[in-house]
């Protein structure tokens, strides 16, 4: 039997590299910025005065990036076409006093970030990565991308009912990883280890934002390599597609100003200075209007004509739990990206937004599917409703259907990332 037709996997190969190189939101935006720089974009500082020239620009703030391309023909009231996404994923994050241990084991104290599938973090080889703040106020990225920590599961001999009654994990007691042996646990050991990793002097690090990650590499899976397994697809898959799409359209005349807005802290509510519920996006868009000679009236006109695609992963139908899905909406992997709908505004999509998305997919030659939650199951949410409410911008929720969402290792179709990127290109072009 011959293998089925497959799309060019170059995009998916690149996605896998992006996932592996981006264990934290800080690494993700640094890698996104590097790719945009190669496409001709240039970083602008929020503390500098901006000038209204055309071309590609981006702002970095913590684990967020806003990037936009101003065509030469853009007027101050030219509307925006925005691809929105988020850079954070559920994981285990290091506490302010990280050094702990008991009974001859050295451990790292961690806090649960977001809503991870906690069992997926057990018995995994974990690395440690994040951002270090130095005594002089500068920051350094760190990535110990090798087996360093492990959250060991209790042997079945000591919990005979686990297979029949289910695994029950206490977030405080059962998820603290080990990273060595010894009874002489000393405050500062973990940070001293990281200072040595980076060749820094003792005591140079005075602040840290650190988190664990699985060191297992992304990989193709399945008889015909039609699936991809990997970490942080929710939602670096969308960030990667948005970067690729923005780079692809950043030349020539366009009827809109294309934008990528990748926020941090979606997994815990988006309420931060780098989250979708913060002022970052609105401030950047307004400054872009005003530096091109625009007025408040131009700003209002630009926002009124703007559309945002909130791109986040969604749920593919699970073959072992099909009853958990809506009986008439069963998105399949490699069936194309999904349009997400919820009439209670957990997603921002309405009928006119659907028409915008359908037009982009038709232009790109990309099939799409519809997702709606089972009425008996609570529906998740995204940055979509937040963006729509905060900025008065028409917003449509879309994404790629995956399995094992919020696991340390998620699963998608190998063709869907490329299909999403193609649809985003068509949307940004207008």
UniProtKB/TrEMBL annotation:
Swiss-Prot/TrEMBL cofactor(s): Zn(2+)
Lineage: Bacteria, Bacillati, Actinomycetota, Actinomycetes, Kitasatosporales
HAMAP family, per the entry: Aminopeptidase_M18_2
BP term (GO), one: proteolysis
Protein name, as recorded: Probable M18 family aminopeptidase 2
Highest taxon above the source species: Bacteria
Binding site for Zn(2+): 86, 157, 406
Enzyme class: hydrolase
Entry EC number(s): 3.4.11.-
Keyword Protease: yes
Family indicated by similarity: Belongs to the peptidase M18 family.
